[in-house]
Amino acid sequence: MKILLLASTAACLFAAPALAQDTAQDDTDPNVIVVLGQGLPDTPGTPAYSTVEIDREQLVTTASGRLEDALGNVAGFQQFRRSDSRSANPSAQGATLRALGGNASSRALVLLDGVPVGDPFFGYIPFSAIAPERLGTIRVTRGGGSGPFGGGALAGTIALESADAATLGLVQASALANHRGDTELSASVAPELGDGYAVIHGRWDRGDGFFTTPRNQRMPATARASYDGWSAGARIVQQVGDLEVQARALAFADDRVLRFEGADSSIEGQDVSLRVVSRGPWQVDAIAYGQWRNFTNVVISSTRFVPVLDQKDTPASGIGGKLEVRPPLGDAHTLRLGADYRRSEGDLFEDAFSAFTGARTEQRFAGGVNTDLGLYVEDDWELGALTLTGGVRADRYTIREGYYRALNGAGTVIQDDAYADRSDWEVTWRAGALYRASDALAVRGAYYTSFRLPTLNELYRPFVVFPVTTLANAALDPERLEGWEIGLDLTPAPGLRLAATYFDNTVEDAIANVTLAPNLRERRNLDAIEANGVEFAASFDSGLLSLNTTLAITDAEVVGTGFAAPLDGNRPAQVPEFAASLTAAYEFVAGGRLSATLRHVGEQFEGDQEDDALPAATTIDLFGQVPLWRDLSVVGRVENLTDEDVVTRNQGGSIDLGAPRTVWLGLRWGY
């Protein structure tokens, strides 16, 4: 299947006519300029839901140069832990919004050019594989229901859009190094050819990293968080008659060391996708994609400092597609009819070892297949200053072929479970209204539902963060969210935008890692997680000076009965009550920019018992770019200027820290 999809994609590329420039005229309206490389335009009802947009300037001026850092400018965005992709275990890098965390799987749906990027087995996001300098914009929709985005958009959607050739320029390149000797190399070539363009890009990040372990807890086996990751890809966009064809391929790998010598983890992946867009009277957006991923991880005993678990192979694949049609119904209505499908398959192979003898004590095998077929219809109705939007979605899902098998050191089967297949329908819906009272004021409100299937990881894979073991649970039910929100958008003066949203979201059957005994947890469905709060966003741009700020205040708590009764009223694990970000930038000359980002994250708890606190942390980042000659600039970046101790893990007093003060210096061409 993998070879077939790659061959099919290549055949489409070579058979296609000449490549395209970045703009083309829409045959239906000669006055409308269409930018190639994107999907169909946003519908009129899109602003009815709470959205924040991250523009390209913010993407290419982060202090760390990493995607998750740019997303951190949206208060309410969070990963399971505060670490970035240089010093986090990849399987802990799920993405969520609105303080609806609690475990490491993504509760937000992350899309790259319309394609889900979450790992098919774990649900984590391979942040290190997506270079922010290759993106044009990011739109974060908090809440909003699944709608046309697809199953999995439980807490919202993060839509990443690739930059086109005009934005990238013919050549971009950068080389930076920090004061510890870590390096970051990136380059792209984006020629405009005929009726379209091509982009070829690559990036390589490597370094010995920093000590995540506090000085007073280090020992001879303690290691720096070294990392070595690369990504390479190509994208071709072309006009073929009345159709626009977009083909993309990406390959990546990332190796990391976490806390102790020998505690190695790795991810790798190969992704391909093909998108066909028709912008005629009958608008069509069709996507097909394939993903192949793998993950490995070695767990080191924190007392004897020898391997106790080798998660040596976790191959997984994701195959899917989407078809959306917008028939011509006149100026007042924008109707969307669509279907999407995703099949996730994966297996786990791991060995457990004695910390005393080094002998293999157990072999474990687990895996399964999840599928989701979704059908949706949605309509936006424009009534002068009022826009109404609403839709319904039906998902037919299956959880099947699940198994868990364990052998002892002698090769004797000690557990051999095959889980019953199950399937069901989930019906979700959303509705919203947007009223533009004036050019300066818009009022919006929405009510929505959504759902998320448990991942293969949650269903079948136990894991160890020594000495705590967390068991899988093949009986997990899907998570279901019901929520509403109301908000205001103000534009009181040119260049100034203010937004405020109050929301109330409830996740029923929320999946969490529940403590059963000391050093033993299991994934369970809680009764619910309830979260309500306020979100603020403001931006100002005078041409030379710009300000962007977001703030989220959230009251989140667990609703628990039965086994979860002791957790009732607790704040969910890894969830802060308060988060805020402020970035100020000054463009002192064409191509020259100075910026500073102040970010604060409130106190969080490591687990479900409201113990092992992660203290609040405030960081300051700096960025500067000064043009030297033509398209060549010198770049300086400072992460965590005040060298704040950002606690990312606290397990009974065993602490991990995030990035300390880090100074980068280098050159850029063509940004």
Automatic annotation (TrEMBL):
InterPro entries documented for this protein: Beta-barrel_TonB (IPR000531), Beta-barrel_TonB_sf (IPR036942), Plug_dom (IPR012910), Plug_dom_sf (IPR037066), TonB-dep_rcpt-like (IPR039426)
Domain TonB-dependent receptor plug: 50-157
Residue ranges constituting the TonB-dependent receptor-like beta-barrel domain according to the UniProt record: 259-641
Topological relation to the membrane, as annotated: Multi-pass membrane protein
GO cellular component: cell outer membrane
PROSITE patterns (alphabetical): TONB_DEPENDENT_REC_3
A family per Pfam: Plug
UniProt cross-references to SUPFAM superfamilies, sorted A to Z: Porins
Annotated GO MF terms: siderophore uptake transmembrane transporter activity
GO BP annotation list: siderophore transmembrane transport
Signal peptide: 1-20
Subcellular location: Cell outer membrane
Keyword field: Cell outer membrane, Membrane, Receptor, Signal, TonB box, Transmembrane, Transmembrane beta strand, Transport
Family per similarity comment: Belongs to the TonB-dependent receptor family.
Protein's recorded name: TonB-dependent receptor
